[in-house]
Amino acid sequence: MKEQPQHTEKLNRAQEILGYTFSDRSLLLAALTHPSAAEGHSISDSYERLEFLGDSILGAIVSYEAFHAYPDLNEGGLTRIKVSLVSGASLSKVASDLGIADVIFFGSSERGTGRRGLHSALENVYESLVAALYLDGGLAPAIAFVKRTLIVRMSADMAKEPENPKSVLQERLQEDGITPTYRLVETQGPPHDRTFVTQVFVGVQSIARGVGRTKKESESQAAKSALEVLSSFFEAKDSKDKKRKADARAAIKAAKAEEKARRQAAQRAKKQKKQQQQ
Question: Is-catalytic flag, 55?
């Protein structure tokens, strides 16, 4: 796909974000082109092939940086750092923070539906940009971009054995007799590239939502977000400050009442359905 006048503004902005000027701007255009915008064109006109290459290059860069940054870590710890950094949630967050969503070229089918699958598109475009930088200028610009935008987020904490956010949230809430529930609220993207959105509830109150490439990942992200949202609540509950503790207890009481009401409503609905079937 050749650059057209309508592409110029976004391509210029993308180069500013990357801090790099392309010799072959068609590489940059392809890296920013969602498959929906390349329908009827060559397979090389969207970011899919570049994403494939970028995934491997990105993995090598992150592995190299982690290997040299943490000489005392074993293979397991280094792997956890790499997995954490190159996860879909991580790359999507980095790309979003950089403003990459505003320079992606979407087809009319995506624009008309609120850009379904933007989360996965951001992840894919980040990887495709790494490949485009490599193909245009070699490893140096690709490494510089990854170090500036992703490696700066690397920490030794990522090497720790991960706690299951769902288990942690459930344990903390069940101390007070509350059980969190999860509900899949949205499925984005085409069948071959699904993104799932899950909300976590305490009683009838929606606390947080999570996005992932699988239902399990979306629930885990929702639980992680809920722990962040409820962190001040847990601190208050454990506090020696009488007022903060009283407020936390009141919130617990309200949540338990809501959960009880939800269960009773579910039981009534089940009973009514059974009666109708008789």
Answer: yes
All domains of the chain, ordered by start, with CATH? 5-159 (1.10.1520.10), 165-277 (3.30.160.20)
Of the candidates 45, 110, 123, 127, the residue annotated as catalytic is 127
Our measurement of the distance from residue 53's CA atom to the centroid of its chain's CA atoms, rounded to an integer in Å, reads 21
Angle between helical axes of 215-229 and 231-238 (0-180°, round to 10): 50
pLDDT digits (tens, 9 = 90+) for 176-219: 778 899 999 999 877 777 889 999 998 778 888 898 888 998 99
In the structure encoding, which two tokens stand for residue 264, read together? Answer: 């009773």
Catalytic one of 51, 55, 123, 259: 55
- Residue 278 in tokens: 């008789």
Note if 127 is an active site residue: yes
Task: Estimate to the nearest angstrom the gap between the alpha carbon of 4 and the chain centroid.
Answer: 32
Is the pTM higher than 0.90? The answer reads no
Closest to 1 in 3D by CA, of 52, 39, 41, 36: 41
